[in-house]
């Protein structure tokens, strides 16, 4: 082409959660059955929506309105309902015009980062959920700017480090946090959230908080929303029904904007996001129409409480499965439905391997793991040996070696097998280097 067509940030568009699937598919010719532990789809892993929710959706599907366009920002009565929910928390108040719907949070994230001025950067966590890190990096054309979540401190960030990075890099215009966090399962305490707000206020930044898992909190953690602590600071909360109903196939998410009237520049930025949404006309109608009926149903609080207990039990089950395992570091999750394992520094190398079903498969894995990150090498060997597909931690904008798996398997027997198999694979993999030296 006479002109370069490729966006400056194209090389930053990486989503290891899906990329690992391509490699797993290659194992099909070796007859390796795959157990998918890479992506957070509760429905795929056997969770069934309550019948009463399905009845509400079915009833709406029978109405002609469900098949037409809706307001660009979203169904008006749904936005009014959600604004009322936010305001009932007693923090920052919003109105229906402070809410914009998108076709899933992936769509929202693409626009939140994509319509920032290129020189305006957002500092986010590491490990980072890939959709955020890729979108932020792609908009700027540079690697995602990050602050470190510390596995030795239950994956909490060093707020002093965050403030230093903000102070000495005036390109930083915003701070991103994910609460509860994906991939680590940590839940931020009030005092830490208030520190984010203090730093944003002191350096004239805006906040972005991904609250996808806000109602999946357990093990004594307090479920706090950005609206409860943001005060007068400009901010955006990202919400979704994909993990909460759960209805990931609905592709239905929204942003809640706080204090846009306090800063004209921030307000113009939010307006640009809405203008971009108008070019698409609107987001999908049916799931938006279902939100007030489902969330406003008297059975919904019990639904949320039941799921929190469910994932608490699974998180603790996973913690017990890996506790005391030499060579790894773990933390007990307090929210979301993921479990992250970190290998101790220096424990992984390119001599380690697992036993697989054939010499041909072993050669294939050896060839495909040349030059890859050590944790990705482990993930490939784990796939070949057990068929269990997890995600390398280095795929989350992170230099720590480890992996993330889900807590979604609905079969108690199969989940027990998965945890035992992964733990045993870690033991054998780390020990294989010593055996190879003999």
What this model shows, in words?
With 438 residues, the protein is α/β, with parallel strands linked by helices. It has helices at residues 16-26, 51-61, 76-87, 105-114, 130-140, 159-167, 190-202, 264-278, 285-295, 300-322, 359-368, 374-386, 412-436; strands spanning 35-36, 99-102, 121-126, 146-150, 156-157, 172-178, 206-210, 235-240, 253-258, 328-330, 338-343, 388-389, 391-392, 402-406. The chain folds into 2 domains: 10-47 and 301-436, Aspartate Aminotransferase, domain 1 (Alpha-Beta Complex); 51-295, Aspartate Aminotransferase, domain 2. It has 13 helices and 14 strands. The strands form 3 sheets. An 8-stranded mixed beta sheet has the order 2-9-8-7-6-3-4-5, with helices on both faces. Helix 5 links the parallel strand 3 and strand 4. It starts with 15 loop residues before the first helix and ends with a helix.
